[in-house]
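Notes from the pairing session

We agreed to fold both candidates in a single pass and log them together. This is the raw record for the first candidate, unedited. Please don't reformat it; downstream parsing expects exactly this layout.

Candidate A
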Amino acid sequence: MNDPRKRVGAGMAGAYRVLVAQVGPIVAAVALCGAFLRATPAHAGLIDALDEDARALQLCVDRGAPAEASGDYVRALEVWRGCAEEARSQGWTASQRRLEAQAELARALVSASPYKADDPGRFQLAVLERAARQETRTWLTPTVHDTFRAWVATEAGKQRMSSVRTITVHWEGGMRVDRRKRDPARTEQVRASELLRRYVEDLGLRWAEPGSPEVDVILHARVSRKDLAPRISSRMGDIPRAEATVMVSAVRMPKLDLTDDGFEARFAAEDADAANAREEAMRAACADVASRTLKVVLRAGIEH
């Protein structure tokens, strides 16, 4: 999977499968995310298990995301506005906020669309400036991620983001090492670092190993992973379920003398293979951290 969009998309699709498994708060965007939410066979068979709110949101994403991807921004705006109104009328507050944010982004796409062909830099910056001002930390489609990736590859983008482009993680308590035996805490930190590096670089940002002097953004974080009680049992056995959590206590940007509030990425996944469930949960959590970090550095870079 060499295409960065496909690699990050896979992580975000995993995040959605987690959402389906948990039937919990709507956080994957794909935003998740969400950023990156994509209809996959894994969630297609499970969509009926979602509550009405989450099911309606996913159906909206399935209609709005293709319109955005094809450049039909007017159609996308119609979808997001209609879905936001439906969410408001049903009292689905969390979905309403996310859909309204997506509609606001679609309005920026419509307004900037005349520049897309002849002045792509102007188009990209207009969209990203609107995204930076939004309260949401994740989006329902990959439009912001794709736009940022293209923009930050330009000389103008590199210059604008020069003080917040290189990211690292500082594991609270230090990188734990126990050479006498396999240390689960270190194993989780190492795997989370590998995934964070992949997702951060796939967004067009740079990654620095902990301790490197060339660092613009430091994520102060801790990571954990645990097995959960199975939700699905049958005479043939239980379906293993696991949860991964990456808690970012603060995002420091020393060159700008800024510190942003942290956030938590917590996801569960289930799979016939317990190891796959643990890996899926960790991938989803790290993909979400990368998406949320992008929002932090985007706002800092645009505003400063």
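Candidate B (folded immediately after A)
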Amino acid sequence: MTDRDTITALLDRADAARRSGDDQEALSACLEASRQARELFAPDLEARAMLGVAQIRALGDELRPGRDAFDEAIARAVEGGVPVIEAEAWFGLASTFFDHGRSKDGHDALLEAMALCREISEASPDDRTAKARLARAIRLYGEHIGVLGSESDARQALELARIMYADLGEAAIAQSITADIAALREYSR
């Protein structure tokens, strides 16, 4: 029988491997952590492990392995009551769909991420990380709908994200969004 500390150590090993660029080692550690977490019935840890698996598998050329792993991470995060991991999995799923030309599916996943980020931010109004996650979601949404051609909606979303980042003291990010807003007409269809 394994314990939570053993699984956490595997997840830490996976994080270190990802930082060093060893995706195979990271994948191996995440898969083992997922197996042990399932055995222990620790859906919160299994969600974190499956998020790692999904992020690595999404790097491949095929849609299905990444999508399936993100779906599993979402299910385990819901079961384990870990909305932050669920939101990250929705972000990853949106990116995976966008990377494979599935704009509608990506948009839907991004809306799920935004809704969760908003809930997390409202539940923890003093949490800078939660606010930054919500700003990131709104920025991605603005960029996506700008590419789809809704310039006025994109401008509103990007301006909101710019204000949120400025309020967080992230001047460089806010400035880059100002540049995005200025270029919006060019990349809107």
